[in-house]
Write a structure and sequence with these properties.
Length: about 325
């Protein structure tokens, strides 16, 4: 009887392992390049429990990979949704751009533990004269966005950049800003973005720049092994699941999209087990206050911007902070 019971227990254990592996395959292979034991570690560390409760999240690998982007997109419905938050009707542009990239790794094999303490550094003027540079550099992962400079602002914003999210109109083009230790992450909003990336990485000279809301970078300062393409599902989650932005807009209405900063926070919540913020507080009561920690732009530009729902983003950030999902280093 005991022998029979032991056989049943062993068989149940084998069935559990098989079922568990099949479920992961059905969910689109969270990471195609992370061996099983490191994958399990990342699953364990990816979210605090209250993140799952408040935001109702399931885990997504953040980058598209050439060898399985079709499978992954189908697994979470991206193949049925057009850009900017899916791949429908832009599949060949994704394939072309991904074919120019050398890999889609999240962290290198020498990065050690996948349980990361991360800071997302916004570009807000609140960072001025805060002397947070040394604190920011102490994190495992430093995430920045667009063309927020480091050079000349090290005391306030630090020196290190692990990931920098960008789009063609916002990426650095001056090699003085090149950092060999940065992974540059393209946030795709239109087919032109993917064609732009493919052309620059293949050495083609951009002749036409129509289709962009302002002139895009005419050179790529990052090497192809440093570049990743963010899965549109991350942006879609930010826009629709967390900000509750409409999926359709009236014909004459400006469509609203999440800011790169909020997309960066969503990205961080998918790859980090602890997320801190710096530079995400804005002074809406003073139109002449500094918009960024660099330059001379004022809050009036942000207030006039019709493409973002800043009020909704601020409400979400407050909720995340109130539930201690993120910690704001520049809260005043």
């Amino acid at each position: 009887m005991r022998r029979l019971l032991l056989v049943i227990i062993l068989a149940a254990g084998v069935m559990y392992v098989i079922l568990h592996c099949n479920l992961w395959r059905a969910n689109g292979d969270w990471s195609p390049h992370i061996e099983e034991e490191r994958k399990e570690e990342l699953i364990t560390c990816a979210f605090k429990s209250n993140v799952s409760t408040l935001l109702n999240v399931n885990k997504l690998y953040p980058f598209l990979c050439a060898k399985n982007f079709w499978k992954v997109s189908e697994s979470h419905g991206g193949h049925k949704i057009e850009l900017p938050y899916g791949i429908k009707r832009a599949e060949r542009y994704f394939q072309l751009a991904l074919s120019r990239l050398q890999n889609c790794e999240l962290f290198g094999e020498d990065e050690g533990s996948l349980c990361k303490k991360c800071v997302v550094v916004g570009n807000g003027g609140v960072l001025r004269n805060k002397s947070l540079g040394e604190t920011i550099d102490s994190y495992d992962v430093v995430i920045r966005m667009n063309n927020g400079p480091v050079i000349g602002y090290e005391e306030d914003v630090g020196r290190r950049t692990t990931f920098r999210l960008f789009y063609p109109e916002s990426v650095f083009s001056d090699p003085v800003h090149y950092d060999p230790n940065t992974t540059a992450v393209l946030v795709v909003f239109k087919p032109h973005d993917l064609k732009w990336l493919g052309d620059l990485l293949s050495g083609q000279r951009l002749i036409r720049t129509n289709g962009f809301w302002k002139k895009p970078a005419m050179r790529m300062i990052y090497k192809s092994n440093q570049i990743r393409i963010l899965d549109p599902a991350i942006t879609r989650r930010t826009a629709h699941e967390w900000l509750h932005l409409p999926t359709k807009f009236a014909k004459l209405e400006k469509p609203k999209h999440p800011t790169t900063g909020l997309i960066a926070i969503t990205f961080a919540l998918h790859i980090c087990n602890e997320v801190h913020l710096a530079g995400f507080k804005y002074n809406f009561s003073d139109r002449n206050s500094s918009l960024h920690y660099y330059g001379n732009d004022t809050m009036s530009l942000m207030i006039q911007n019709g493409y973002h729902d800043i009020a909704a983003e601020q409400r979400l950030l407050k909720e995340l902070m109130d539930h201690h999902i993120v910690i704001n280093l520049t809260e005043e």
